[in-house]
Amino acid sequence: EDQVTQSPEALRLQEGESSSLNCSYTVSGLRGLFWYRQDPGKGPEFLFTLYSAGEEKEKERLKATLTKKESFLHITAPKPEDSATYLCAVRPRRDAGGTSYGKLTFGQGTILTVHP
Amino acid sequence: ETGVTQTPRHLVMGMTNKKSLKCEQHLGHNAMYWYKQSAKKPLELMFVYNFKEQTENNSVPSRFSPECPNSSHLFLHLHTLQPEDSALYLCASSQGGGQGVWEQYFGPGTRLTVT
Questions:
Q1: What is the pLDDT of residues A81-110, one digit of tens each?
Q2: Residue A43: which of B56, B97, B107 has the nearest Cβ?
Q3: What single string gives the DSSP state of each residue in chain A?
Q4: What is the pLDDT of residue A101?
Q5: Distance (Å) from the C-alpha of residue B16 to the closest C-alpha of chain A?
Q6: Min CA distance, B110 vs chain A (Å)?
């Protein structure tokens, strides 16, 4: 069964204090790993897709990396507006039924709070 | 309107009511999804439609009934719900479905409370 575990559950940072969020996964063949940001009362907002180990992607203060077992979301010099819940999701090659029609398995998320 | 829209944004219903959630995507995508997001739990995929055809039903109780009349519109019909069905219901769309790897774009969600 595909599993995604995110840590920590919650992270409090001071503005400018860099850190990383972790997403560990167990999946029957990874086709893609996604990072999303979710603000309170809103739907998740797409950030990155990573396809293979060693791949990295950057957007402003965020950088996502991927290994064969986990992904990291590095936040450099965060600002209060980076406060949100960050979600990780994996796209397996096949689900238990043998098909994989767009099915994503999500982690429970990391709640990031950046204090000014 | 841009992106993925959902109506209503908030809904309170009794256990004997019948209501419907509506989702519309303005992105020209071909696949649409319903997710349930409960407090302290990961997003749970409920249904997937690819080119209007349902391709995934993730063991969802029959009191939830999806409908996809075309690639731009998705409905979730609700009847005789239970209090534990209270959650944020999210709609998403992606350019393709099937075996491709496509990022999904989410709507703002409908906050459902069952009393």
A1: 999 999 999 988 765 555 555 678 999 999
A2: B107
A3: --EEEEE-SEEEEETT--EEEEEEEE-SSEEEEEEEEE-TTS--EEEEEE-STT-EEEETTEEEEE-SSEEEEEE-S--GGG-EEEEEEEEES--TTS--SS--EE---EEEEEE-
A4: 57
A5: 27
A6: 9
